[in-house]
Design brief:
alpha/beta, Aminopeptidase, Alpha-Beta Plaits, four-stranded antiparallel β-sheet, 13 helices, binds zinc ion
Amino acid sequence: MNMAEKIASKIEARRESFIKLSDQIWEFAETNYTEFRSSELLARTLEEAGFAVNTAAGNIPTAFTASYGTGSPVIAILGEYDALFYLSQEKGIAEKRPIKQGGNGHGCGHNLLGTAGVAAVMAVQELLDEEQFEGTIRYYGCPAEEGGAGKVYMMKAGLFDDVDIAITWHPSTGNRVISQRIIANNRVTYKFKGRSSHAGASPHLGRSALDAVELMNIASNYLREHLIQDTRLHYAITNAGGCSPNVVQQEAEVQYVLRGPNMSVVQDMVERVTNIATGAALMTGTTFTHSIDSGTSDLVPNKPLELLMYASFQQLGVPQFDQEEESFAELIRSTFSKEEKISEKALADTLLPYEYDSGIIHGSSDVGDVSWSVPTAQCVTACFALDTPFHTWQIVSQGTTSIAHKGMLHAGKVMGLSVIELFRQPKIIAEAKAAHAKELQGKPYICPIPDGVGIPSVTTEYSLI
Ligand SMILES: [Zn+2]
């Protein structure tokens, strides 16, 4: 048996238990720092398998690490398990039907994401023993990827300080190794204060905080034209100052997500939008405060690691789907709009070619921050019908199908094989570190979350990705 076959057979041997784990997390559908049951389930599974578990890692209640082996190299596999707000959906149907109105759902497939990592580290654990490799395999239970920047706080707590390499993946509609730069972002809250008054009898005495928010948004929309390509600016009015038109609104709040190719572009955007807020306050006779609540960095690609992951993927091939799965994917695709439906096929059946540093993805992830600290590589596997848009009921519905399970187990194998090759060929680790150092030469890491800003309140409802 070659190494790819060994990894695959170890994961297949526990196939049913990993599927159960993932489906259970899908049922929990816990969001943003409330992933208590999901993290406990994953941590317990690894503890029972003989891993040394550190719960509430970095003083983050739903973060944990689980290590096996001793000394270096330390290879990390990153797992996530958070769901999204308002995406409650019944499983396995091609029709929008929430289980609970206003409930949560796994609209980004993180039930699969976290479980594939567990499958990978458990397979690697066995091989470390069998082949007597030196080093440590460590699973990172990372909470709140969806807007909570869990990994940034884990980094701040020093949890990645002794890590040599990080490997991860994301459930997707296709198969490939990612070498694109996801964009950096900050979430900034602007709170305006004015003076209330009777809007009919004495409007001249009022100073409207809502006017300030509206003027700020108009000016920010004008700003768009004068921002570089690959920036993004979006906002939500999170407090409109009440629901009475006849009371001049004395308070109002707007949250901005500002994204750019790197943190210094984002910082410049924050400054320009804050200047706009100053202008809006002057125009309306109001005052404002602002705070940077969250943020994540752009992704640093790593060619040696990505090539290793691509070679592992090539050896293992792609997930194979049967006719019944094709038919279900077709049914899901029948719910897409014409403009969403691009592919000819229902399910991916090829591995897309690898291309180093191939453009920008206009989404954000806290994996970006890990990639500034540690050489990092990630792949995606086919878990959903082609063209399925993320953060939708269709992703939630597909999250427990045999298609999703196959994609998940396959990702576990690709990651597991890549990690084992790192233990077998330490020179790849050295190459990855050299490429990382070269890429970051003269580019200091700018932490997107200012010191003193703690993990967000568990009731905060938002999503960055
Ligand atoms: Zn995601």
